[in-house]
Amino acid sequence: MPGSAKAMAIFTVGGLVMVTAYTVTLGSNGWLWFGWVVLGLLTVGVMAARGT
To answer: ∠ CA(29), CA(32), CA(38), 5° rounding?
Structure first.
């Protein structure tokens, strides 16, 4: 996995942890989950484009 794709994957997983912690602590926020889904789709797209 190239460096930029790996960094993006780590950022996506970190984002999931943060959004989940926010949801558990303060309640659900649909925009945060929407943003995380978009980030996840972008990460999958980058990995697919790079052939990993």
So the answer is: 140
